[in-house]
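Hey, I was hoping to borrow your eyes for a little while. I've been staring at a protein lately and its backbone has me curious. You're getting the sequence in one-letter code plus the fold written as tokens. Would you mind checking whether the tokens look sensible for this chain? Here's the protein in full, and shout if anything looks odd to you:
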Amino acid sequence: MHSGSLPSAWITRFAPLVPRNGTALDVACGTGRHARHMQSLGLQVTGLDRDAAAIDGLRGDTQGEWIVADIENAPWPLPHQQFDAVVVTNYLWRPLWPHILDSVAAGGLLLYETFAADNEAFGKPSRADFLLQPGELLQVCAGWHIVAFEQGLLTAPDRVVQRIAARKPGADGDDETPSSLVYPA
């Protein structure tokens, strides 16, 4: 991995559910550990981050659309644009929920993993504003097909997380996974 940081096991487990040659958005992408993984699966990736140096690094060595944007204090930079997958890890800004959910195309996949309540016992983040409440991702994805959901303590390093893989209902209201996709073992 380029940045020395491996992608999340949650993301690598469920990323193969995105159709090959599909599109993916990596929100708060940082140095691109998940964007690079999605590209290795044949996806066209767009990454957003407020860190211009991180985005410049991606522009310098990785194909894709790389956008410097302060998504907490400025308008959402991709209005009306949708992707086959949206990936968010180690990031929580609740006012963005509508934009994140709207960015997932009908039948598309949301892969979200971040810190949850009780993480304060292990370090940062420790403020409630930055910690998901029990079952919060399930509430946010109400009406979607939940492929997988977990919450609890992880080790190495110790942290409390919540994570979800959820498929947005299709345009016809069908929330079934397309038959061309195979769930990983």
DSSP finds five helices and seven strands in the chain.
